Amino acid sequence: MLVALFLWIPPLVGMFSLDGMVFGLPILFVYFFAGWGILIIFCALLTRALRNAAQSEGR
Amino acid sequence: MLSSELVIFVSLFYVGLLYTIAWWGDKRARDGHSWVRNPTVYTLSIAVYCTSWTFYGAVGTAARNGLEYLTIYLGPTVIFLGWWFLLRKMLRISKAHRITSIADFISSRYGKSTQLSVLVTLIAVVGTTPYIALQLKAIATSYTVLTVWDHGMVDTAQHSLSIFSDSGFWAALGLALFGILFGTRFIDADEHHEGMVAAIAFESLVKMFALLAVGIFVCFVMYGGIGDLFAQAAANPDTAQLLLLREDSAPRWLTLMMLSMAAILCLPRQFQVIIVENVDERHLATASWAFPLYLLLMNLFVLPIALAGLGALPAWADPDFFVISVPLFENQSMLALLAYVGGLSASTSMVIVATIALSTMVCNDLIVPALLRIKPLRLTERDDLTGLLIFIRRASIVVVVFLGFAYYRSAGATDALAEIGLISFAATAQFIPIMIGGLYWKGGTKTGAQVGLVVGFALWGYTLLLPSLADSGWMDPALIQNGAFGHPWLRPENLLGLTGFAPLTHALIWSISLNTAFYVLISLFTQPSALERIQATLFVDAFSRKGQDTVIWRSSASIDDLYELVERFLGRERAFHSFREFGWEKDTSWRGKGEADADMIAFTERLLAGSIGAASARVMVSSVAKGEMVSLEEVLEILEETSHVIEYSQRLEQKSHELEKAAAELRAANDRLKELDRLKDEFLTMVSHEFRTPLTSIRSFSEILVDTPNLEHDKVEHFLSIIVRESERLTRLIDDHLDLARLEAGHSDWRAVDVDPRTVLDESVEAVKGLFDSRAVQLTTEFSRQSVLLHVDRDRLTQVFINLLSNAAKFADPDHPSVTVRGEAMDGGYLVSITDNGRGVAQTELETIFDKFSRSGKYADDQPKPSGSGLGLAIARHVVEHCQGKIWAESPPGQGATFRVFIPGQIMEAIDAVRPGVFRTDSFGT
C-alpha cells in the first residue's frame, strides 16, 4: 500500500515523465499501467496467502 | 445523429431491464438463494465509484491535463491494496454495531451523538448535491450530443427554456422513482438491498463493456493499433505535452490523490456498498485486488480516446463527451448508442446508490431524532411506525435528487464534469480526520469532532462552494476577487494571503489542516463522557475485543415491551423472525411478560439501530426501559470493579504459583527424608551385622570353653586369644562409631595447631611400619622440598593418614606389595597422594567408597576380610572436610588406587631437601 502511494506521487512520478517510447507507447503511460498491474497481481497473491493462513489456523 | 425517439426508447428499455434485474435479485434473496452474495457481485457493486465522471469526465480531464485523470483511481487502488489496515477494521466495527451509514458510523464512535450525526448528514447531503448534479448533467448532455450532433448543440443543452423540456428533469424523476422502488421497499434491520446491488453490479458490467468497446474501436479501427495512435499524438505538439507530466502539477497531483483516497472511504454511497451491503468479510479480500483491476480496465483506453478526439474532432466538440462524439464522428451510431447506454448506467448507478444511502441517513439521523424530540407527536406511543419510516425515506430520496437537479439547473451547468466532482470530494474529505482519528485514537472526543467538522466544512463552503456559485452568476464576483468586506486577506481563493496554489489545493490545505488541528486540540482539552469512552474503546480495539457491550442495560423491561417496540419500527414479520432467531440462538424465551435480560435489551437496541440509527435507537429503548437504565457512571464502576476482580484473581494466581512452588519443595524434602530413613535402616542393619560377627565368634568360643572343661591348654589359650582379639575389634568398632557420630554431630574436640604435614606423614609412616613389615610391603616416600603450614588437629590428621596407609597396605598386590606416599606443597595447600599397586577401585565406587560400610565391593571373594570397621574412610572424609580440605580416590585401570588428600594452608620456606627413602623390610610372616 505504501509502495503504491510512493510510486504514484511526486516527485517519483516526475522522474518517469520522459520523452520517448517503450514498445511504441509513452514511457509514463507504460509506467503507470505496468505498475498498477503488478501491484494487483501482488495483492491477489498476498490475499490468497492470507486466506490460506486463516484457513489453516481455523483447522 | 440518432433520432430522439430511438434514444428515449433505448433509455426506457434499459431502465426497465434494470428494474427487472433488481426485482429478480430481491426475489431470489427473499427465497434464500441469493446469487448477489458473492465476491464478484460485491466487487462490481463497489465499481459504483466509476460514475459518469469516469465515463465521460475522465476523457475530458485526459484531453485537458493528460495523465492527471489517473489520480482519481490510483487513490482508491492504494486504499484497497491496503484493505487489511483500514477497510477491514471499518467493516468489523460496522458489523458489530449494525452501522447503516457513515453518519451512523461517526456518531456511534463519538458516543452515539445525535448532533454529530445530524452534522454529518447535512454535510453529506450538501456535498453530494453537486455530484448528483454532475450525473444529471451527464445524462442530459449525452442525450443532446447523441440527438443534436452539430455546432449548435452547446447552446441547446444549456438554455432549455422550460424545466419539462430538459432531459435532466426526466432523468431526475426516473432515478428518484427507481430509488423509491428499490431502496425503500421495506425496512430491514441490516439494510441490505440485494436487488439494488444486483442492478448496480449489472450496470458496472455495462459501463465497462461500453468503454472498452469504444476504446478498442478507437485504437484498432480508427488507428492502426495503440502504438500508431500514440505515435500520431506525439507528432502533434498540442497533444504531445499530454503524454508528459506538467511541470507545476505536483501539488495538484498530490491533492487529487489524497482526495480520491478520502473519497473511497467517506462518500456515503461508497460506504453503503463497501461496508453496509457487505455480507462476508472474505468478499472484501477478493475485492482488494479485483476492484483495482476493474479500475485499471476502465482507465486503459481513456487517454487513447482523448487523444483520438483531440486529433480528429473539430475544436468546438466538448472533450467531456468524446466517448460518444468520436464514434458519432466516425458514423458508428450504434457504437455511440452503446456508449450512451454505458454513460447512462454510470450515472444511474451513482444516483441510485447515493440517494438510497443519503435517504437512510436523512431518515435515521435527521428526521427521526427530530420527530422523537417533538413531544406532541407522541411518536413513541404510536403503533406501527414502519409506514412512517418508509415515507420519510421516499421523501428524502426525492428531495436529494431534486436538490441535485436544482444545482444542475443553476450552477453546475458551466463547469467541467471533473471540477464538479472534485468539489463534492472535497466536502466528504472533511470526514477523514474524525474517521481516521476515531479508528486509531481513543482520545478523540465528540466536541473535538464537532468543532473540527464545522470548521472544515465552513472553510470548504467559503473557499470552494462560494467561488463555484459566484462563477455561475449567483453571487457578486466582487466577493471572490476582493474578499469579504473588501479585505484582501478574506479572498476565498487566497485566504490570509496564501497564494500560488490552485483553488482546489488551496481549499483543501485550509479546510483539512484546520479541521484536523481543531479536532485534535479540542479533543485534548475536553473530557469525553462515559459513553464516548466506551465507544472509543470499542472502536479502536475492535480486533482485540470479543463480544459486545451488553452491560449497558440492566434487566428491567419486559420482553413484550421490547418486542412491541421492534414491531413498531420493523413491522410484524421482521420483528417476529428476529426475535425468534434470537431466542433460538440464546436458548431463552422471546415472548411473554417476563423480564428481558441485558442481552436481549442490547439486542433490541442493535436491531433498532439498524433501521433508525444508533442515536435514535438509544432514545427509543430507554423510553421503554425508562428509569431503570444503568447510568454510565455505574457501568464504568462495574468495569472498574471487574478490573479489580481481575487484579485480585491475578494476585490469587500468583499466590497459588507460590504455593505450588512450596509444595514442590516440600515434596523434595519429603523424598530426601524418606531416603535418609532408608539409609538409617540400612545403617542399622549393617551395624548390627558388623557387631554380630565378632559377638558370634566371642560367644561361640566362650561356649566351647564353658562346655568342655577338660580342653587342652593350647586350645584354651588360642580360643581365649581369639575372644580377646574379637573383643578388641568390637571395641574398636564401637569407638569408631562413636567417633564418627561425634564428627557427624560436630561434637568432636578439635585442637588445631600449626603443623608441618611432613612431620605428620613421617609419624604416620612410623606408626604403620609394623603392619607394612608384617606384609613385606615396599614403601616409597617422596616429599617435596617446600612445605606448607597447616592449621589442623594433628592427631586427627595422623588418624587419616594412618587409615589411608593401612588401607593401602591391605589392598596392595599380595605377591609384590608396594605403596608410594607422595607429599607436595602446592599453591594454597598441601597434597598427599598414597598409591598402592593392588586391584584398584571400580569406577562406580570412587565416590561411594567414602560412605559408611561401603567396603564390601572392594574385596575379591578369595581374600580374607580385613579387620577394619569400614568406617575409616568415612571418618577420614569428615576430618578432611572439617579442615576445608578435599579427599578423593583415583583408580586408572590396572594401576592400583591412589587416594589423595588436599588440605589448604600457607607455603613455608624450604627446610629440607627431598628425602627419597625406601623402607624395605623382610616379612616375618603372620
From TrEMBL, chain A:
Keyword annotations from UniProtKB, A to Z: Membrane, Transmembrane, Transmembrane helix
TM segment ranges: 25-46
Designated name of the protein: DUF3311 domain-containing protein
From TrEMBL, chain B:
Membrane topology: Multi-pass membrane protein
Coiled-coil portions: 645-679
Broad enzyme group: transferase
One MF term in the entry's GO annotations: kinase activity
EC number from the UniProt entry: 2.7.13.3
Pfam families xref list: HATPase_c (PF02518), HisKA (PF00512)
Chief place where the protein resides: membrane
Record-annotated membrane-spanning stretches: 6-25, 46-63, 69-87, 116-134, 169-187, 208-230, 250-268, 289-317, 337-364, 385-408, 420-441, 453-470
Catalytic activity: ATP + protein L-histidine = ADP + protein N-phospho-L-histidine
Keywords: Coiled coil, Kinase, Membrane, Phosphoprotein, Transferase, Transmembrane, Transmembrane helix, Two-component regulatory system
Presence of keyword Membrane: yes
Highest taxon listed in the record's lineage: Bacteria
SMART domains per UniProt: HATPase_c, HisKA
Protein name per UniProt: histidine kinase
The species this protein was found in: Thalassospira povalilytica
